[in-house]
């Protein structure tokens, strides 16, 4: 274990479960972005984004296509580092610790801030091995421990009952919705503190989407979720806070009910009432 | 233009037909030549092939007997070449695709070298092997380790294998690169997102997924290298040897070279002709076998990736 990991762990916050109707300011901070600017080969994609991510709160990010939602999300777990030509400036903290600090290993950030992608991307391995992947990577060898944590992750992802008799089958044999839940289980298996979800239901039918939304509601008590969605009803259903992105800027962020009923900014109102985007 | 002036009946597709005829003609000529060559070798060779031919050394100044030493030498050479070329080629491809940035000077240099290496005539590789491996490396080893005695500073198996490996390397690099680049970005990101390092991602996700493509390309490269004669001409192949090579610094016999020897150096061409056909036949069969394996692996990995789509 490296020194960075030790200090990161030492500063972890105690879990506080948000009340059903959260007065968000009372909830502790999990992540914090300040003046975050990201560019691809010099072209700015998001500019001066500052946002707080509260613990055990679902934060939804909405906005028209190309406004920088994915870019922002991917800079919360340093996934953008893998894109050639990317430049990041500004500040992002996880439990008060800068994740872009010079000593920080992005791999350790990603172990604590997991991610689920728009297109489900199971490995061409068995269902079991898909979920066990992150555990094996982290050095877990004990079969009993692996089996137990795979089961827990699959239960969490509401997939256990559907796959418990076919764990050795290829993950690619599952339906689209099941594959996406498999990917959620894979992310949950390493017990991240934050889960980033980039349009996790955009390729799914209404029933599979409802399952994922249920899942988010359940997971909230255990971790912090940031979800990008194009679906305004979905944002309203699953999130407590909502941020609206427009042309690379965060126009407005606040309680979901406020954003959807009394937005402060004209652009937000235009977008949620469907006047553009 | 009034509508009536635009006619529907007529001939505007002359060019199309001519081109179609020309391409079909070209294809027929190529197929025909291939068929003639194959038929000739198969008909001529099949008569010679026997267990004795495959398992016995040549006798009576190569006018009788078999070609076992040449088969043995070819297989040993191909194996050694594969052992040398594949790890280096795969490692180079991994470096180029996964680690080098697009602007990296080193990567660009490696790419240019690989591309140019692929265009060098194979006889030049033979001269390079003679000048570099034998005269420089081999003699150097002799001077340092054997007190100037000629042990490695002469044509032998290992230098031929390394020369062939360099000839094969560009194809291995390029086909491995293609296989690695065809692994979807989403899979890599899925691995990185659960906290895998780049190396873990390469070893556990990228390489297994690219394996089919890597194997196919590698086997095709190896099968091409296995039939080359020019690179081994000055670096280790022998006209005739009474015993099989047992050390890396022994000389060896080789099927391709044996064909050449039988065709040009025989005192009695009529008596060696059946042997000549038989040797060519065996060489073809070995190459086809490698290609068949490659085709099999490719079709299997295609099926797998189709299942994942
Ligand atoms: N890998 C990349 N290389 C270059 N430019 C990129 C890259 N990824 C995103 N961009 C650009 O950055 C801007 C923001 O893209 P981003 O993917 O963050 O938008 P988004 O809000 O997620 O859109 P969508 O809703 O369509 O997913 C766009 O102009 C896009 O073209
Ligand atoms: Mg996006």
Written account of the structure:
The complex is a heterodimer of chains A (277) and B (309). In chain A, helix 4 packs across helix 5 (143-156), helix 4 (127-137) packs parallel to helix 7 (176-189) and helix 5 (143-156) packs across helix 7 (176-189). The radius of gyration of chain A is 18 Å and the shape is globular. Chain A is of the alpha/beta class and 277 residues long. In chain A, a hairpin with a 2-residue loop joins strand 1 and strand 2 (43-54). Chain A contains 11 helices and 10 strands. In chain A, strands 6-7-8-3-9-10 form a 6-stranded mixed beta sheet, sandwiched between helices. In chain A, strands 2-1-4-5 form a 4-stranded antiparallel beta sheet, with helices on one face. Chain B has a two-stranded antiparallel sheet. Chain B has helices at 14-48, 51-55, 68-99, 105-119, 122-145, 157-181, 185-193, 198-226, 230-233, 255-264, 269-308, and strands at residues 58-59, 64-65. Chain B has one domain (51-308): Orthogonal Bundle (MetI-like fold). The longest helix of chain B is centred in the C-terminal third of the chain and has 40 residues, at 269-308. Chain B starts with 13 loop residues before the first helix and ends with a helix. Chains A and B meet through helix 3, helix 4 and helix 7 of A and helix 7, helix 8 and helix 11 of B. The complex binds adenosine-5'-triphosphate and magnesium ion. Magnesium ion (MG) binds at residues 69-70, 198 of chain A.
